[in-house]
Design a protein that fits this description.
Order of helices and strands: HHHHHHHHHHHHHH
Structural class: mainly alpha
Oligomer: single chain
Helix content: 55-70%
Distance between the termini: 39 Å
């Protein structure tokens, strides 16, 4: 929006030429998102507290968490505001990538909002019914996958159903129509993985910050002809605008982490975790780094796998692999302090992000 308002003055005022550059607009979006999150944070916390939108803590979880009961939740609304508003201000709104990202983020956020609303306001402990939540996630993912597929047919130079395989620069299989199914699996897994990671103060948003920063760089490289050719990436000129969205996600994550760090003053709730997972997955799809997403979001994958393995083991052998899943609860129960777990998981997330970046030249 702001980008389009300033565009006519580019040739008249040289100082405004900087608004043409993705690097400047990404920095502006990130700073705008940070400012929104920091400034609106206290108001949001107080508002949710007055509305008695407090976190429900399950009795079967670690007992140390019982003291967190009543902490304002649904703070994901603050994250969404911090991402969407700067994107609308600084991104090129004629770019289809931008609208696919906005739709996916808001749609997954709406699912999370409904789940939070039923749990916190309507006092339905489990939120959405067991079938409703995954079904709605699949429907949203289907729309995103179909949008990318049809866009690849209409604009093959801007969108693609090919996959870039890490370490193999000449291997780029084209999935065609089956890409839609692949996108559904990816997005549903990504949104739920972030949701499962959201169990300790600042853990999910801190890991999201690292992943979003990584995707900011990858999106910029994908949309830059020289860099993409040098790194053997699939060059997608219009994918550069994804950089601005990811930059806004970085700023919004920083701002929310300010209020969500230990001891948390506000929790993101499902409205935050599902939307962030959907946003990361969609960004990976649009910049053709789908297969690199598990490395960029390595902590999310490990947390999700710990739950899958725990459930499978218990059903097959009636034995548990971990004391409790997701994995961060296991470390709590073996004696690690919450701040220790959070910082150590941040370190692991950073290592995964570095590994993901190094694969760009190991191809």
């Amino acid at each position: 929006m702001l980008y389009h308002l300033l565009y006519p003055f580019h040739t008249q005022l040289s100082v405004l030429n900087v608004t043409r550059y993705i690097t400047f607009r990404t920095a502006a979006a990130s700073l705008s998102a940070l400012a929104i999150s920091l400034l609106l944070g206290p108001w949001m916390i107080e508002r949710l507290r007055r509305l008695q939108v407090g976190q429900f803590i399950r009795e079967e979880g670690p007992q140390a968490h019982q003291s967190k009961a009543g902490t304002p939740t649904m703070g994901g609304l603050l994250i969404l505001t911090g991402i969407i508003v700067p994107t609308l201000l600084w991104a090129d709104l004629t770019n289809r990538n931008v609208w696919i990202l906005i739709f996916s983020t808001l749609a997954f956020g709406a699912i999370g909002f409904a789940d939070d609303y039923l749990k916190v306001v309507k006092k339905r402990n489990l939120g959405l019914r067991a079938r409703d939540k995954p079904l709605t996630q699949v429907l949203v993912a289907l729309v995103v996958g179909a949008a990318v597929y049809w866009s690849s047919l209409a604009q093959p130079s801007q969108f693609s159903t090919r996959l870039i395989v890490p370490f193999f620069k000449t291997v780029m299989p084209d999935l065609g129509i089956f890409y839609v199914l692949f996108a559904v699996v990816l997005l549903v897994f990504a949104s739920n993985a972030v949701n499962l990671t959201d169990g300790l103060d600042g853990l999910a948003i801190g890991c999201t910050l690292i992943a979003a920063a990584t995707f900011t760089g990858l999106a910029y490289l994908t949309g830059h002809r020289v860099f993409s050719e040098y790194l053997d990436l699939l060059y997608l000129p219009r994918a550069g605008e994804v950089t601005i969205f990811c930059g806004a996600m970085v700023g919004a994550s920083m701002g929310f982490l300010w209020w969500n760090c230990y001891p948390a003053q506000i929790f993101m709730g499902d409205v935050g975790s599902l939307s962030l997972g959907g946003a990361l997955g969609t960004a990976a799809i649009l910049i053709k780094q789908e297969l690199l997403l598990p490395a960029v979001g390595g902590v999310f994958v490990i947390e999700a796998l710990s739950v899958i393995l725990q459930v499978a083991s218990f059903k097959l052998t009636r034995k548990r692999i971990f004391r409790m899943a997701p994995l961060h609860h296991h470390f709590e129960l073996i004696g690690w302090k919450e701040p220790q777990i959070i910082i150590r998981f941040f370190i692991v997330a950073f290592i995964f992000a570095l590994f993901a970046v190094t694969t760009l030249k190991l191809r």
